[in-house]
Amino acid sequence: MKLKWALLTLVFTIATVLTGCEPLLVLDPKGPQAKTQADDIMMSIWIMSFIVLVVFGLLVFMLIKYRASKQSKDYEPPHIEGSKWVEALCIGIPVLIVTFLSIMSVKSNYEVEATPKGYEGKEPLVVYASSSDWKWHFSYPEENIETVNYLYIPTDRPIEFKLYSYGPITSFWIPQLGGQKYAMNDMVTTLHLAADTPGEYMGRNANFSGKGTAENVFDVTAMSPAEFEDWVKEVKETAAPLTEEKFDELLKPGHLGRSTYTGTHLEFSKPPTAENGGHKHGNSDKEHEGHESDEEHADHESHD
Q1: Which of 81, 87, 122, 165 has the fewest C-beta atoms under 10 angstroms from its C-beta?
Q2: Among candidates 159, 83, 92, which has minimal Cα distance to 119?
Q3: What structural domains does the chain harbor?
């Protein structure tokens, strides 16, 4: 009796708590890239749920069918050879499942790495998103403005993010618009996103990068193209210019609120030259030049 009431209490508590939960952001997509990933997640969940139900069903069947019987102690069951059909099913079904999930994952990976579906003929808005301890800097080179810790984007237009970091590796992530991608200090990575509907979304650094990672977040506001143009115009009329001294101050470790500037740091602090996998480590080129000059100097001395 006590066990019964304990189980009922547990079920009631879980049901009560879950009624107050908001839907998972990754399963509430607001753009084509996020929808592709949400569909893949749900497909994987349904497939795994089906597998679990089948396995538990077979377990119950085996426990009932082959449970202990009232045979005598000297009873010996008949020798049965292995079944080729059973072995084929035990091997073939997992192979088919893995093959299907692999094809689905590769196909969706190509989709999310390209221009979002339905936006192929539209000019993308290019935004340079760079991170520092523990802030996000968003540079709009076409509009010649820059924001810190917040991002405004137009709907119904592809967004092409150029990601890099002024510190440790971070991960740029807006769950309702698409998957995460790394930002590194020696290369630029490209992320294609788009917002179908206006709204406010959460963005954050999804990679641990020190004690301030938990607060390394930013706000995203998707608005109509007309509202976006009005915002750009307002920024140009009211915001202060971004100087090199001010940008150096922003790069110092710490937390800041929102800030807006005219001009971008791209004018005096260029992003890395390597892109999408082409790492360029430190001052290797300068060091190489230095080695060459040393060798040339030694060669001249030998000739002398």
Answers
A1: 81
A2: 159
A3: 125-267 (2.60.40.420)
